[in-house]
Amino acid sequence: MQPLANVTPLKPPARAGAIEVRHVGQVFRTRSQDVVALEDVSLDIKPGRFVVLVGPSGCGKSTLLLMMAGLRQQTSGTITINGAPIPQPDPDRVGVVFQEASLFPWLTAEDNVEFPLALRGVPKPQRRAKAQDALKLVGLDGFGRRHPHELSGGMKQRVSIARGLVQDPPVLLMDEPFAALDEQTRMTMGDELLRIWAATGKTVVFVTHSLTEAVYLADEVIVMSARPGRIVDHLQVQLPRPRTYEMLSGDAFGALRDRIWRHIRKSA
Amino acid sequence: MSAKMNFKMNFKINAKALRYLIVIALIALWELLPRTGLIPELFLPSLSATLAAGWSEAAEYGHALAVTLYEVVISMAFACGGGILLGAIVGSLPRPRILIMPMVSSLYAVPLVILYPVFTVWLGIGSESKIAFASIYGFLPTMLATAAGIQTIDPQLLLAARSMGATLSQRLIRVIIPAAIPTVLSGLRVGGALVIVGVVVSEMLISSAGIGYLISRYRTILDSPHVFAGVLLVLFMAVAFNAAIRGIERQAAIWQTGTRAGQAADEINASAMQPAT
CB–CB of A106 and B175 under 8 A? Predict the structure, then answer.
């Protein structure tokens, strides 16, 4: 495994980071009835792509993400990452970034980033070096000794991203990572995330409620409907990169956002 | 910004000075009120008379203090150890929680002191019955706090740990325990204080040694200075315990910073210092 900072977007590891979702269904059994959370979801995500899942609340987009992370098992169908199923969390293949509250408040930023390495017994000096690289990558050089409560919301999410990347997994799953941030921070963090993504060449699957955020960040947007959760549209975002603030007011951007909104309005 | 900080600093120093002033005033009143005859010496002997009484029987008080401290230390070990252990089990496993929690909560509302005579029948009037009573007395809040502390851990933290490949034991040691420490400490504070209460009260009821016994004995012969000397010793014990817990809390401050419980503690400390305006 080479240090993070040296990974270039031009040479992603061969085939690493491909995600295949085949006829996946998820049924929650409650005492009175069975609730179909996901129904026959199939999806191909190619290595290095930035894919955003959007949909109304309860459409199962977070559930789908948890299944890709190995944190929850589907009732039917298969999910493979790098060609192999993921019956339990595997931080070598998949890094996960949650909402703001998922940093350990009693650990410093660098200890938080080192946490997954510490779990596997990586010696301290190597751990520290990797954490420093990851923090540098997310633009937090020099903030390693602070505790989460001494960091702003955006900085906390940078730490979370660094923690997700520290084992250099080919896939990064993000469950509404910027939902708790104010709009300005959110815009900045979007740009930061695109920069990090371009620098590392990871496959990113990103769940959000924000249509603007979805179109702004994505190569592809997957639109889901609620109850049962299904894929209703799969858009290719052809806007050039790097994305800029000016694109937000362009016609192409507006058309894509309108198309997503019409799907969501129909199913909500 | 700096003016505001200054104001806050002054405020804190003033509040601290004010608290010392109140303590000094209380001590002075304790000496003056009985001396001037405003309160009869039988009800409240002056501080100097109390200290003199205690000094004249120093050996007796010393022995009583040793007995009481011994009982308190053993009871605390039982109450805190047992409370944390059982609280952790009950807090993390739903089945025992459903079975035990309602019982423990209603037990907590029962004045347990009614059981003390039974303990003396079972265990005699020596230290054993005091230790048994005080252990149970302090055990309940410690257990309840520990169970609550573990139950209220943010599930997001555990999910995050699992996503990084943490095993069950790693989640316990690296997430559950550090996340529960602030709540457990606040439980220890209450539980420990109740242990002191339990030991002293049971000594006062039926016993042959300890500070509670001395207070009770001197009360029956209306020897107020000696009674108050005992009271003073109990007071010192409680203050020392409080200081010890504070020390532990300060040691654990690294864990606490940023957690909700830690912030709440800070707010309470800050608001406790605010004088009425």
Answer: no
